[in-house]
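Tokens in:
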């Protein structure tokens, strides 16, 4: 899933390539992608793009005198830029193409989604706050006013484990499965530690890891072409998706805990005092 750093890089890329250009055609290919109907998708046509913004994992394309085109790429969605779009309208079918946006220059982008779950979402709204997912977002962890005191206040009374708390978009916007693993590894904390149990020193460590991990990922992604952002994300991850590999800090073997639709990765030596965490799904299989 694209998370804050990748969506931030896409925002920068689209700012450079969309702003100042007119949207001449928006072609939906998968009806499931459209989450609003009034104003219609065609309402953005004929308007110039004046800004591109990021809200958590949402991308907002603002048009001058027209509505906003807001996108959430979900788990398997992506944006593919084309300097020259194919001639003729795309054909609906079983492929990954969900929606195409064409500019007056002949360039544009496709929104695609792999797999069968089809969670990619597109909204046409007068204000991004009309999108429910945007309206309920928590603070952006890279915002100038997101300081250690803000994180402390957010975690007070939070009875969930750190892994779940970091992924909650209404608590902190933009962090998903991959970067929550990376942040907790950098902070040397167990993903199962209760968020409300953190000492002031631990909160400081988590804050520093949160800011540093996301900032470094944004810097790595900045200037990378949209088509290479996925590979760039994978190359920078130290523990997420690296089960069985050596930890780059201590050389211990990276372990995994599996859930019904996701998994987390961690280093026992760095994060859990050398003790492996219980993998409930594996335990059930061994009974």
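Residues out:
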């Amino acid at each position: 899933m694209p998370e804050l750093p990748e969506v931030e890089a896409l925002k920068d890329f689209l700012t450079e390539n969309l702003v100042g250009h007119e949207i001449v055609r928006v072609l939906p290919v998968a009806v499931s992608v459209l989450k609003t109907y009034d104003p219609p998708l065609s309402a953005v046509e004929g308007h110039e793009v004046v800004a591109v913004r990021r809200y958590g994992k949402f991308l907002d394309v603002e048009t001058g005198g027209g509505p906003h085109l807001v996108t959430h790429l979900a788990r398997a969605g992506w944006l593919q830029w084309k300097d020259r779009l194919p001639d003729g309208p795309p054909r609906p079918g079983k492929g990954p193409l969900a929606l195409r946006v064409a500019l007056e220059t002949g360039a544009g982008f496709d929104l695609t989604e792999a797999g069968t779950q089809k969670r990619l979402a597109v909204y046409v709204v007068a204000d991004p706050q009309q999108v429910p997912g945007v309206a309920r977002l928590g603070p952006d962890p890279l915002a100038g006013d997101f300081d250690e005191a803000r994180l402390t206040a957010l975690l007070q009374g939070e009875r969930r484990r750190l892994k779940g708390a970091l992924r909650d978009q209404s608590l902190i916007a933009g962090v998903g499965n991959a970067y929550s693993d990376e942040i907790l590894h950098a902070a040397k904390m167990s993903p199962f530690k209760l968020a409300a149990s953190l000492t002031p020193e631990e909160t400081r460590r988590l804050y520093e890891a949160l800011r540093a991990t996301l900032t470094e990922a944004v810097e790595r992604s900045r200037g990378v072409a949209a088509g290479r952002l996925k590979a760039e994300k994978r190359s920078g991850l130290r523990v997420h998706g690296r089960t069985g590999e050596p930890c780059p800090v201590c050389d211990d073997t990276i372990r995994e805990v599996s859930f019904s639709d996701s998994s987390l990765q961690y280093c026992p030596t760095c994060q859990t005092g050398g003790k492996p965490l219980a993998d409930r799904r594996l335990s059930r299989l061994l009974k």
